[in-house]
Amino acid sequence: MLLVTGGAGYIGSHAVRALRAAGHGVVVYDDLSEGHADAVLGAPLVQADILDTERLEQTLREHQVQAVLHFAARCYVGESMERPELYWRINRDGTRSLIRAMQSAGVDKLVFSSTCAVYGLPPAVPIVESTPRAPVNVYGETKAAMEDEIAASDLRAVVFRYFNAAGASADGVLGERHDPETHLLPLALRAAETGAPLTLNGDDYPTPDGTCLRDYVHVEDLADAHVLGVQHLLDGGASLTANLGYGAPQSVRQVIASVERVTGRAVPVKIGPRRPGDPPELWAAADRAREQLGWTPRHTDLDTLVEHAWRAPRA
């Protein structure tokens, strides 16, 4: 049995579905502050706080959990700067709570959901795992601290540093449902749907079209990586840290153009100021995940990613 913290959230719910499809028993642990109970698609759900160490330990013991996948965290850059204490409490302290519960219950295998935000403003791209961590926002700082807590423990862990998660399940069952929504693709789809302008944060970056370049990774490919990561640990594999990205960046304007192609609708745009700390380019070298885990992404075409997001639930 596997425990998935935050398994009712966007990426967590896709991972739960992929794990169950691969034959794993899964129990979800989520307080539903950001997640949706219907997104677990019938998997057992324990609604509880990540800071409730006693309840975590009880859940681990009761379900005879062998390994944990840890998605539970706050993940909004802007909010992290406005409410840093919330991020330190849920992200870092929540991870400490989970580690204590795992140690007490004798569970020593962990797959952790980290982020490219730990790299901050990288000196070069593509970003490799040895690039120094230098986060420029509280969200990235707390994720780096979570990595440190795990590294200092006696757990064997696979740490995945995501680049830009996007898309939805290919069959339209699961989608991206955040409130408020801050991610580019669902905002661009909303603009195509409603005609309300999408704010483009800066069009004067030193990139080919003036907008930021990012590595957009299909959420089902991220989920597949987690299946491989936990199997690696169950098979006795050593700890590792790996980027999850395609190494093929797309600009904001390229994403907007893809939305217009897929939907057949115009995406009205208004130009806004740059967001503080937004680097011109963030994209990954993901050779480690491919070589050491056998990760083979299935949905690398941008229009396919947008098409899946367009037909999935967004509210």
Q: What is the number of strand segments? A: 14
Give me the strand/helix succession.
EHEEHEHHEHEEHEEEHEEHEEHH
Mean pLDDT: 95
Highest-level CATH class of the domain at 2-166 and 216-246 and 284-297: Alpha Beta
Shape: globular
End-to-end Cα distance = 31 Å
Derived structural class? alpha/beta
Strand content: 15-25%
- In terms of quaternary structure, the protein is single chain
CATH architect. name of the domain at 2-166 and 216-246 and 284-297: 3-Layer(aba) Sandwich
Approximately how much helix is present in the residues? 25-40%
Main β sheet profile: 7 strands, parallel
Looking at this structure, what is the CATH superfamily of the domain at 2-166 and 216-246 and 284-297? Answer: NAD(P)-binding Rossmann-like Domain
Helix segment count? 10
CA gyration radius, whole angstroms: 19 Å
Explain what this protein looks like in three dimensions.
The protein has a domain of 210 residues: 3-Layer(aba) Sandwich (Rossmann fold), CATH 3.40.50.720. Helix 5 links the parallel strand 5 and strand 6. Helix 6 crosses helix 8 and helix 8 packs across helix 10. It has ten helices and 14 strands. The chain is globular. It has a seven-stranded parallel sheet, with helices on both faces. With 315 residues, it is an alpha/beta fold. The longest helix has 22 residues.
Give the SSE map.
Layout: E1 2-5, H1 10-21, E2 26-30, E3 45-47, H2 53-62, E4 67-70, H3 77-82, H4 84-105, E5 109-115, H5 138-152, E6 156-162, E7 164-166, H6 184-194, E8 198-201, E9 213-214, E10 216-218, H7 219-234, E11 240-244, E12 250-251, H8 252-263, E13 269-272, E14 281-282, H9 287-293, H10 302-310
Parallel strand pairs: 1-2, 1-4, 2-3, 4-5, 5-6, 6-11, 7-10, 8-13, 9-14
Antiparallel strand pairs: 9-12
Helix pairs in contact: 1-7, 2-4, 4-5, 6-8, 8-10
